[in-house]
Amino acid sequence: MRRGHFRIIIILTRQVGTPHFCWHTTGGHTHRVGAVAVRSVRRARAGAMSAALAMSRGLLVASGVHGRADTAGSGTLSVPKPFRSIPPTAPTCDPPTVAEVNALAEFITSSQRLLVITGAGVSTESNVPDYRSPKGAYSTGFKPMSHQDFMRSSANQRRYWARSFAGWRRFAEDTSPNDAHHAIATLQHENFIKKLITQNVDRLHHAAGSQDVLELHGTTHEVVCLSCKHVSDRKQFQKTLARLNPELAEAADHTDTEHRTLKFRPDGDVELAGEVVVNFKVPPCPVCARGPLKPRVVFFGDSVPTETHHAATHASNTCDAVLIIGTSVSTFSAFRLVRDAARRNVPVAILTAGETRADDLASLTVKKLAGETLRLVLETVRRKEMYGY
Ligand SMILES: [Zn+2]
User: Fold this and answer.
1) Which has more pLDDT, 228 or 10?
2) Buried-most residue among 41, 109, 169, 248 (CB within 10 A)?
3) What is the whole-number distance in angstroms between the Cα of residue 159 and the centre of ligand 1?
């Protein structure tokens, strides 16, 4: 194949941004037509430039299988290392190999009742740091507030809410789903995933269009009163906090770029100076006027709500395969789901950039980035469905 035969076509699509190519043969010459499926004009331009540059330098790596030799086929392109765009929050690792992508696609399509368990690793490519990877929050000495610490004093609650208030904009409003979230949502819609359980509190699975997401550790997008159990919307609560704390609200508005350099945490906190925290005002519960109000998140040292626990157990007991994505499943609430399924001889696969607590239980382990890998896996799953290989 000479380089001159490559052409790039950009397809704007609402579907997952999967680098994709197809080729056809005309007049004895084979033409490959590169198509980069993207979700926005900005990404289309970036994708086209990367692919064109890669092709011109002979760096494009293409993998795929011919449909019929004289007509058409399709496959996936993997953009080589120099053209990868990986956010600084994501762990450093090589791109997935074709064999790894195929093995994951085979694992997914072989299952009828696939349980997917995700964690912070699916959000690192959305610029949300994780806890345990070398670039994670723990590596900088961060210790999340425990349930016991939160309950111990109103000063601790003020500290929590001041940091969380200041970090919310970047955490909830400036982050968007990445290829991992989009691929998972698509696999769910196309019935390849029976149940999705996430340990993440960021609601990025929902933002990508996933429905029926079991949030094992709750979400920062809701606020619960610990006295009367009233649940309210976090966005409204942010507005109330902004009204009660105009100085910090204004500071957060005007120094947003500065906040980006602050230590940002997986649950949305930032570090703040002591005096800001001491003077921070937290309102009482709007229903019972008592409280305290807490994000509807399972803090460290807290236990998973009974209803959530039962739903997760049911998912583990009824699945026929478990795929762990972007998590070391270090927390027992998630690990037990994998362990119990494995005891029933259910196959376990892992896609995450690092060691996990369940490595010994897995028949397939791919230590790569979730988004970068899953967009290729999705493409392969579709190819298998369409062409049968
Ligand atoms: Zn209340």
Assistant:
1) 228
2) 248
3) 20
Predicted confidence (pLDDT) per residue in 258-290, tens digit: 444 445 555 666 666 666 677 899 999 999 999
Residue 359: name the closest of 384, 316, 330, 320 by CA.
330
| Among the listed residues 105, 120, 119, 107, the one whose alpha carbon sits nearest the alpha carbon of residue 322 | 107
Q: Which of 2, 37, 3, 35 is nearest to 21 (CA)?
A: 35
Q: pLDDT by residue (tens digit) across 239-260?
A: 999 999 988 787 766 654 444 4
CATH architecture under which domain 114-370 falls: 3-Layer(aba) Sandwich (3.40)
| Ligand 1 centroid distance, CA of 174 (Å) | 30
For the chain, the average pLDDT equals 78
Task: State the Cα–Cα distance between residues 359 and 349, nearest whole angstrom.
Answer: 9
Tell whether the torsion through CA atoms of 137, 237, 334 and 226 is positive or negative: positive
The 8 Å CB, 24+ separation contacts for 129-134 are: 129/89, 129/264, 129/265, 129/266, 130/89, 130/91, 130/266, 130/326, 131/266, 132/328, 132/330, 132/354, 133/91, 133/353, 133/354, 134/91, 134/92
- Cα of 274 vs centre of ligand 1, distance in Å, is 28
| 296 confidence band (pLDDT: 50, 70, 90) | very high
What one-letter code names the amino acid at 350? I
Catalytic residue, chosen from 20, 182, 205, 217, is: 217
For residues 88 and 362, is the Cβ–Cβ distance under 8 A?
Answer: no
Q: Which of 207, 214, 217 is nearest to 181 (CA)?
A: 207
